[in-house]
Specification:
With 151 residues, this protein is of the alpha/beta class. The protein has 5 helices and 6 strands; from the N terminus they run H-E-H-E-E-H-E-H-E-E-H.
């Protein structure tokens, strides 16, 4: 299964905030959109310079308490983002995410254009669905073979 299948299924809407936007806006956006991360753009508003996920939010609140909510989101984002391509295999991306201990990956089209973010949960769900489908097909084949043998 390819990353493009996940992006197609979940859509390519991408929540984006600026580095200077308050952390409270990131919290509100993640809650409203029911997502686990937002992309953070630089001052030009075009280039993604970091990601802010639930882990960074919790860390910020643990260190600074409610004061963190008024600080810029850029103060808490992580810059060492993982990128993947639409054409990448889901299992390969999952291996990269696991080895780097990152729960999100920025998805790029072949031309380098950002088309979304996938989470580790998205990848696990897609691999589970694929495994279920394979199991169902094998079960149906086995039943078919048994029926044909007993006829």
């Amino acid at each position: 299964m390819k990353i493009s299948e996940i992006v197609d299924r979940k859509g390519n809407a991408l929540a984006v905030l600026g580095e200077g936007d308050p952390l409270a806006l990131a919290v509100a956006t993640m809650e409203r959109e029911k997502i686990g991360s937002v992309a953070i753009t630089g001052n030009d508003g075009n280039r993604i310079v970091g990601l802010l996920s639930q882990g960074e939010l919790i860390g910020a609140l643990a260190r600074l308490g409610s004061e963190a909510l008024s600080r810029p989101a850029g103060d808490f984002m992580y810059r060492n983002m993982l990128y993947c391509r639409c054409s990448d295999d889901v299992a390969l991306v999952m291996d990269r995410m696991t080895s780097r201990k990152q729960r999100h990956s920025v998805v790029q089209h072949a031309d380098g254009r950002v088309v979304g973010i996938v989470s580790l949960g998205d990848l696990v769900a897609s691999l589970l669905a694929s495994a279920r489908l394979e199991t169902d097909v094998l079960r149906d084949m086995a039943r078919s073979h048994i029926c044909m043998s007993s006829a």
